[in-house]
């Protein structure tokens, strides 16, 4: 059955569907970057509220600023913006159709339609999932004002190319019309994601309109949040899963049987009551996000990087690999847990066990390639802060240095079995050039300040990195991991 509003009643009885009418909904949120994670996470929480007859005026309009977003728009509009969510529980799969999204704004280079919609007074939240690397953050953490996108938007504030430029243009219209601000809400995996979003918006606004920047700083809120749910990319297997439930969905989403959303309650124009359906509002988001980013997101890189080199296709497969699993547990327990604080109801060691079980879920076909994508942003965001903290406290960093060396080896562009690794980073050419030069001079890799900032100049880190990269190139990935694990080689 092709998924549309007029076919909902004809879906198989085991497929859950919206109990609310689309005609009763009105938009209160614009979400920029409408990928799988948003639809399995934020949109799902809103859908659950709507199933209770709540939040009817908080429906979502999808939006995007990249050419690929136009293709997603066409797919979603063809099925009335409905999404099939397939939960991959080891005890059995289930399917649910969600309908919290009611439209998708046209995608254009000048973002005129997006700006106009964000300027509407009914829009009270603009949320984003634009990836960890999409916030124009310089290597040392500040705003990257020199990025070409930011230079363009500063010079052409009425026709911006970035999401942040569009947000600023819309806020200017709202200020001038007396419509008031909206909340800017990041849903990306960044520690202090609200703070980073605020930095990007204000940093760009100050380049072209300091008075407007001051108004934004005084009136717009940027709540921090921790988001968590493993959501694989959609491919032929996921399309077939939807068909197995009797649904022809051009963009179904699969996800694990776990979600978490911890949010700072700082919304200048109101918000849905997401806490009624499982979200947590707290003033202590930092501890939750530090635990998740340092153990789950960094853990993903710890297992995906050697898995790619050893031709292990999925994250579950990586956890079934004795060496990779042992590597994850040793680094997590000995080199990351000491830098993670407990949160209510969860100690760091318990969280390691929880995410190990989630990673090992055989129903989740999450590829190592997807998890390893954009390593330049993910290593800098998830692993390097831990290394810096460990170095500052004279704590162990051997395993973390090994992961950086494995990443450098991965960026050479081939696996241990000599099969090629297709480009898997926006800066792939730069990374492969440095990685291959580092075969002879390891310092070349960690001298990349766009990734490492000043970390590459630390003698303790550099010594460990040099040792492991040389070992990987002479003895191979498996033997190097065994050496770190103190196994016989």
From TrEMBL:
Has the keyword Ligase been applied to this entry? no
Judged by the first EC level, this protein's enzyme class is oxidoreductase
Can you name one GO molecular function term for this protein?
mannitol 2-dehydrogenase activity
PANTHER family, per this entry? Answer: MANNITOL DEHYDROGENASE 2-RELATED, MANNITOL DEHYDROGENASE DSF1-RELATED
Q: Where's the Mannitol dehydrogenase N-terminal domain? A: 28-275
- EC number(s) recorded for this UniProt protein: 1.1.1.67
The UniProt record lists the Mannitol dehydrogenase C-terminal domain at: 284-471
- Name of protein: Mannitol 2-dehydrogenase
Q: Cross-referenced Pfam families, in alphabetical order?
A: Mannitol_dh, Mannitol_dh_C
| Keywords recorded for this protein, A-Z | Oxidoreductase
């Amino acid at each position: 059955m092709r998924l549309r509003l007029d076919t909902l009643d004809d879906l198989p009885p085991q497929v859950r569907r919206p109990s609310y009418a689309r005609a009763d909904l009105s938009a209160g949120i614009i979400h920029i970057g409408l990928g799988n994670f948003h639809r399995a996470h934020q949109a799902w929480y809103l859908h659950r509220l709507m199933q209770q007859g709540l939040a009817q005026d908080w429906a979502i309009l999808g939006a995007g600023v990249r050419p690929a977003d136009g293709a997603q728009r066409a797919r979603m509009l063809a099925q009335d913006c409905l999404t099939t969510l397939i939960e991959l529980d080891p005890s059995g799969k289930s399917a649910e159709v969600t309908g919290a999204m009611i439209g998708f704004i046209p995608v254009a280079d000048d973002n005129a339609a997006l700006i106009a919609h964000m300027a509407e007074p009914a829009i009270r939240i603009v949320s984003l999932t634009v990836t960890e690397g999409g916030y124009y953050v310089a290597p040392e953490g500040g705003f990257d004002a020199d990025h070409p996108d930011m230079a363009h938007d500063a010079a052409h504030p009425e026709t911006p190319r970035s999401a942040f430029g569009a947000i600023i243009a819309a806020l200017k219209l709202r200020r001038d019309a007396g419509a008031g601000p909206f909340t800017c809400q990041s849903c990306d995996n960044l520690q202090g994601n609200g703070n980073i979003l605020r930095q990007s918006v204000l940093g760009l606004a100050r380049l072209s309109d300091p008075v407007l920047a001051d108004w934004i700083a005084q009136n717009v809120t940027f709540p921090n949040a921790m988001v968590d749910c493993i959501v694989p990319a959609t491919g032929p297997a996921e399309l077939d899963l939807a068909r197995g439930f009797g649904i022809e969905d051009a963009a179904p989403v699969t996800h694990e049987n776990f979600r978490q959303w911890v949010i700072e309650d700082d919304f200048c124009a109101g918000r849905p009551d997401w806490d009624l359906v499982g979200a947590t509002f707290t003033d202590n988001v930092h501890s939750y996000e530090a635990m998740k980013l340092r153990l789950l997101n960094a853990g993903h890189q710890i297992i995906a990087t050697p898995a790619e080199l050893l031709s292990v296709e999925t994250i579950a497969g990586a956890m079934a690999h004795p060496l990779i699993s042992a590597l994850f547990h040793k680094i997590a327990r000995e080199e990351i847990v000491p830098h993670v604080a407990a949160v209510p109801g969860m100690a760091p060691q318990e969280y390691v066990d929880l995410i190990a079980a989630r990673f090992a879920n055989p129903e989740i076909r999450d590829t190592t390639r997807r998890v390893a994508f954009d390593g330049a942003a993910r290593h800098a965001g998830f692993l390097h802060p831990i290394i810096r903290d460990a170095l500052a406290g004279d704590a162990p960093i051997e395993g973390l240095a090994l992961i950086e060396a494995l990443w450098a080896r991965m960026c050479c562009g081939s696996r241990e079995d000599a099969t090629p690794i297709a480009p898997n980073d926006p800066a792939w050419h730069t990374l492969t050039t440095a990685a291959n030069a580092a075969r002879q001079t390891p310092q070349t890799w960690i001298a990349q300040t766009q990734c490492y900032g000043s970390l590459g100049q630390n003698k303790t880190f550099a010594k460990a990195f040099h040792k492991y990269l040389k070992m990987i190139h002479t003895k191979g990935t498996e033997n190097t991991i065994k050496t770190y694990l103190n196994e016989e080689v």
